[in-house]
Amino acid sequence: MNLLQALILGIVEGVTEFLPVSSTGHLTIVEKLFGLKIDSAGVTAFTAIIQVGAIVAVLVFFRSDIARIVVAWVRGIRHRELRVDPDYRLAWFIIIGSIPIGLIGFAAKDFIAGGLRNLWVVVVALLVWSVVMVVAERVGRRTRPEAEMTIKDALVIGLVQCLALVPGVSRSGATISAGLFRNFNRVAATKISFFLSIPALVAAGGYEAATQGSAVGGSVGWIPTIVATIVSFVVAYVAIAWLLRLVTKHSISVFVGYRVGLAVVVAALLLAGVISAT
Predict the structure, then answer these.
(1) Which of 73, 77, 108, 203 has a CA positioned 20 to 30 A from the CA of residue 115?
(2) Rounded to an integer, what distance in angstroms lies between the CA atom of residue 29 and that of residue 278?
(3) pTM, two decimal places
(4) Helices 86-107 and 151-161, interaxial angle, to 10°?
């Protein structure tokens, strides 16, 4: 991978990680257009590692919220009487909600890295989850703030997040939709999605860096990987601010047209033989 390709992939990751359009799906498409072997260990690891840049953007953007939640959690662990703090409970809900994707992601890692890295999978997932997003907007009452989150909400949203292991679904699209189905308002559903992304993506990126370091170095290269990670951080920070402003006034259904259009274009390229599915 050359540095221009790394720059472009970093931008793609940063723009799409938190928008409900599927960052993995976009990365898979662009990597394929670059002629990379999308189901190879090195490229799969690269895709996971550069997501850490976007997660650092979340940590920086929400540093005050995260510090408050962590402090409340530590205080609650030490002092029982402080466990009534909503931030203490929210910390536990983030931990609990992150467990399903950790377990399923680890158990099915070979299938995710191999069988699911297929552009037809991306096409179908883009279309199917677009329907779910529309239904979530129409069904959800959007009345609950994040402070009303319960353990049931955490488990439901955490389980739905597992569907984002399928390229094209979108982790943010899955968790925001689940939040809307649980009647959270859009801003609350989006913030919960951001918070749940931290353990999931840090764990995925860290695991791939630790176990597939030689594959990354031998195929993609560590310099392009680092460049893409830094670029994804900068771009993701801007994307987070933009998305939060957007959901205060608009439905996430505004992304459905783009998702469907992308699916149609990729399907046409596949049927025409311009690109292959794997």
Answers:
(1) 203
(2) 10
(3) 0.87
(4) 30
